[in-house]
Structures are given as structure tokens and as C-alpha cells.
Amino acid sequence: MNAIDAITLEVADPEAAARFYSAAFGLDPSRVRLRACETPTSGFRGFTLSLVVSQPGNVDALFTAAVDAGATVVKPPARSLWGYGGVVQAPDGTIWQLATSKKKDTGPVTRDFDELVLLLGVEDVKASKRFYAEQGLAVTKSFGGKYVEFDTGSGAVKLSLYKRRGLAKVAGVPADGTGSHRLVLSGASRPFSDPDGFVWETEPART
């Protein structure tokens, strides 16, 4: 395995979720898929999705569009040591970080984004790092037991690991949560679940 071809969000109402993601982010439905699910879940689901953009104005544009489409404000956009960003929670419960490392705009404001990043909140970053390395993902950045980035090549989604409580803090939500992650990842050569219960499926053959 060396790429994430797509992610699937399990939601109560796929049609409503599809309308939200189209209006808020203009997401490609082949990249972020939706399927109906009523599996119990509560609190923090153990992951966030990030849209990484080129400038602060794009963060603001995406943030405004998301709120107008029905998202809940978790963290209003603000400057920080690393750049500029904000956090929203989609109506289906997924937490989205909208971020840039740039401090000022350098071009026309759009809702374009450069990367879609999945951050998994795990209990033991070092153990999860070893697990994913054994699945074939190369590590590109690693900061001890706090944070890891993997090389997912030309895959549609980038993958990073974060300490669960640290990720919840960055996202601005309590770390407690139970039940399903309501997230499935595609791109594995065989189905499996990782040590924290995130589910991977094989990618169907394209015709």
C-alpha cells in the first residue's frame, strides 16, 4: 500500500451530506465518498480532515461557504505561529480544518485547495507509525511520539498521525468519544483495521 485512493464518510443522510460538501468545498465525490450508516458514535471520532490552501483569503472563503451551507463553527479563522486557519464541523459530524502556512494573500481569493489531508488521532503514535510502515507507507516526517507524516505519492488523500488528545486540542473539541469512527479508507491491497480501529478496504477495480 502506498496511496489512499479515497475516503468514505459514513453518514446518516448521504444526499444531505452530498449537498453540503458540494456547496461548502466543491469536493470531488470520487475523492470523498458517502454512504449511509447508523452505527452508534458519540463525541470526537478520532480524526479530522484538512483542506490545505495557498493563502488566508481562501481559508476565509471556504470557512464562510461551509457555515452558509450548515456547518458549525468550532474555531473561527485566526492567525497563529504556523499560519492561518479555522475549524468547522460538518452537519454529519466530521471535523474539518481549513489552513494555510501563508500569512498574507498573494493572488485572487478562491475556494481552491492544494491538499486534502487525513489526520488520524491515535493512542500510540510510535506503534501506529510502525504499523503503517509495515503496510508499505514511507515516513516523510516524524516528531517522536507526537506526529508523523507519510508519503502517499499521487494518492488523493495525504495521511498523518497525531496523538489523539493532541489532535482534539488542535481541533478545539473534547478528546472523549466512543463508537464508530464513521470513516473508511480505500487503497489497501487487503482489508484490515489498524490498532485504533480505522478500517481500510481494497479499492474496486476501475472499468
Q: What is the total tally of β strands?
A: 15
For the biggest sheet, the summary is: 8 strands, mixed
Q: What structural category arises from helix and sheet content?
A: alpha/beta
Unreliable sequence segments: none
Strands side by side in the biggest sheet:
5-6-7-4-8-11-10-9
Instruction: Determine the fraction of residues in helical runs and give it as a percent range.
Output: 10-25%
Q: Please write the string of helix (H) and strand (E) elements.
A: EHEEEHEEEEHEEEHEEEE
Task: Indicate the proportion of strand residues.
Answer: 35-45%
Q: In DSSP terms, counting alpha (H) and pi (I) runs of 4 or more, how many helices?
A: 4
Radius of gyration: 16 Å
| 3D shape | globular
**Could you tell me how far the N terminus lies from the C terminus, measured between alpha carbons in angstroms?**
21 Å
Give the rounded overall mean pLDDT: 93
Oligomer: single chain
Label this structure with key terms.
five-stranded mixed β-sheet, alpha/beta, 207 residues
What is the element layout, followed by pairings?
Blueprint: E1 6-11, H1 14-25, E2 32-36, E3 41-43, E4 47-52, H2 56-68, E5 72-79, E6 84-89, E7 95-100, E8 115-122, H3 125-134, E9 138-143, E10 147-151, E11 158-163, H4 164-171, E12 177-179, E13 183-188, E14 192-193, E15 199-202
Parallel strand pairs: 1-2, 4-7, 8-11, 13-15
Antiparallel strand pairs: 1-13, 3-12, 4-8, 5-6, 6-7, 9-10, 10-11, 14-15
Helix pairs in contact: 1-2
